[in-house]
């Protein structure tokens, strides 16, 4: 993914209010994401927020080859249709928690 294993990483926090519709959204958008060389990295259902926006109940990373590819994905007409039909009715809050560029294929494990 990307030149020399580089990745653009988007960290997202959501307040999912309708799990079934959100699952349908994920099922529809994942092949579109894959067609851009994108993928989900880590994906968490949050049971308790210690600091920050207490509405957040889902946190995940999206991985792209680069920032320009991320922009093309979010502008894609098929993605926009899936978002309007399924994401918008099932998610009350969507926050970009961070963006970063990673060199190499995987984050280093620390103990």
Automatic annotation (TrEMBL):
It comes from the Bacteria. InterPro entries: Dimeric_a/b-barrel, DUF1330. SUPFAM superfamilies: Dimeric alpha+beta barrel. Residues 13-88 form the DUF1330 domain. It holds the Pfam family DUF1330. This is DUF1330 domain-containing protein. It comes from Sorangium cellulosum.
